[in-house]
Amino acid sequence: MPNNNIWNAGIVHTHNIELIIEIKLKEVVRVLLPNKYIHEERTIVMVGGKLIHLLRNPVTVTQLWDSYRKQQEIQNLPQVPFDLFILTLDFLYIIGVIDFRKGKLRRLTHDQQNI
To answer: Chain-wide mean pLDDT for the chain?
Structure first.
């Protein structure tokens, strides 16, 4: 008969991981689209569109972050936190819109995307 303490610890551990994943997914969904609590400029969809526009040429993450922050300042729009910026880059990479090679981000053209 298995040790109940080990078995129970495994169940608790698995439950905790599932709970953490659920919380993180809710955070992502919360910032994906605007709602009455989140300004549209602080959503992945809006930030993503602006980042794609800024990616005319391959740039480093730091260069893109600086360009994005300057653009927001010039347009007098709310600044987004760096973690939302990175989350947006993750999202764009996952959906196949950008690529990261040799330390630089680049926008993929339609024929370069793995559809």
So the answer is: 81
**23 domain residue, yes or no:** no
pLDDT per residue as tens digits for the range 81-97: 999 999 999 999 998 99
Beta-carbon neighbour count of residue 91 at 10 Å?
A: 19
Residue span of the structural domain in which 92 resides: 33-112
The CATH number linked to 73 is 1.10.10.10
Domain count, the chain: 1
| Within a domain: 54 | yes
Whether 72 contacts 80, CB under 8 Å: yes
Query: 101 in a domain, yes or no?
Result: yes
Task: Assess contact for 77 and 49: CB atoms under 8 A.
Answer: no
Residue 106: is it exposed, middle or buried by C-beta count within 10 angstroms (0-12/13-18/19+)?
Answer: middle
Cβ atoms of 97 and 52 within 8 Å: the answer is yes
Task: Name the amino acid, one letter, at 60.
Answer: T
Q: What is the DSSP string of 53-94?
A: HH-SS-B-HHHHHHHHHHHHHHTT-PPPPHHHHHHHHHHHHH
